[in-house]
Amino acid sequence: MLRLGIVDFDSSHSIEFTRRMNHVGISRDQWVEGARIVAGWPGDSRMSPERIGQFKPQIAACDVEIVASPQALLDKVDGVLILSLSGERHWERARPFLEAGMPTYVDKPFACSVSDAQEMAALAQSQSTLLFSSSGIRFVNEIRHFQQHQDLYGPLHGCLCYGPAKRAEGNPGLFHYGIHTVEMLYTLMGTGCQSVSTNSQTGCELVTAMWEGDRMATVRGNRTGSTAYGFIAFCENGVIPVPVSTRTAYRNLCLEIVKAFETNSVPVPVETTLEIVRFICASLESEQLGKPVTMTG
């Protein structure tokens, strides 16, 4: 049984992950085996400090030890989950654990700058330490079902991915809710984006991106009306509309975290995560400049 620790309680993921791994207050079909959250540091928050007081007693009630510092987790756990709501905090939060060679999961958004993302990746590589990040949307049942039938649909020429894109200070642009839809985009398209063009309005933003091989894909981030998730896949043998439910997102992500820590193998390569960070930064730059932006490595 893996012993896992949590850093920062200002995201709902702190209690949702704990409930699933510790089998408390959640239906049996959501249970995740193989690991328990045994300790956590509540931390502080630049975005939602009121959430820490809300989630702390709930997490403690799941038989989780509350510790006074991140360093106190090092001798108590086999792996750590960095769950800070703001991606701007993740590099400073992850650093002591990566330096100690501890397997580390960093919640979305991995980072809000290319430099922070590269620093984390470089440190993990230098220490030969497992590091990965992902939105749970990547692993939901509907996307997995589509991928399992890819041979039937034929090659994917492009897609339109949609979902909520509420903005918040601390996670600029698509780094907040929009990160989920961008992760969906990359799950379908893979890496290799070459340029990004963004049109942002009050009610939504539209990001059009060019991939290698003249493939084109679009993210529509909605801020008014329905903010459901889903995608339309433009395949060789058909146009496939796929509404996406978040019902399995937390459970499937937690399963992937446990599997990664057990096998020392990540489900999402760090190189993919780095490109996602560059994509969102390029989207913000395109919005500010009012013209397409070329992706850089």
Taking the alpha carbons of the first and last residues, their distance comes to: 39 Å
- Which stretches of 5+ consecutive residues score pLDDT under 50? none
SS strand fraction: 15-25%
Q: What does the average pLDDT come to? A: 97
Tally the beta strands. 13
Judged by helices, strands and strand pairing, the structural class is alpha/beta
From the alpha-carbon coordinates, what is the Rg to the nearest angstrom? 19 Å
Task: Write out the strand line-up for the largest beta sheet, numbering strands in chain order.
Answer: 12-11-7-10-9-8-13
Give descriptors for this structure.
single chain, 297 residues, alpha/beta, seven-stranded mixed β-sheet, six-stranded parallel β-sheet, 9 helices, 25% strand, globular
How are the SSEs placed, and which strands pair?
Layout: E1 2-7, H1 13-22, E2 35-41, H2 49-60, E3 65-66, E4 79-82, H3 90-99, E5 104-106, H4 114-126, E6 131-132, H5 141-148, H6 150-153, E7 156-164, H7 178-189, E8 193-200, E9 204-211, E10 215-222, E11 229-235, E12 238-244, H8 249-263, H9 270-289, E13 293-294
Parallel strand pairs: 1-2, 1-4, 2-3, 4-5, 5-6, 7-10
Antiparallel strand pairs: 7-11, 8-9, 8-13, 9-10, 11-12
Helix pairs in contact: 1-2, 3-4, 4-9
Folded structure, characterized:
- This protein is an alpha/beta fold.
- 35% of the residues lie in helices and 25% in strands.
- It is built from 9 helices and 13 strands.
- A 7-stranded mixed β-sheet has the order 12-11-7-10-9-8-13, covered by helices on one side. The protein has a 6-stranded parallel β-sheet with strand order 3-2-1-4-5-6, with helices on both faces.
- It is globular, with a radius of gyration of 19 Å.
- The N and C termini lie far apart (39 Å).
- The model has no long low-confidence stretch (mean pLDDT 97).
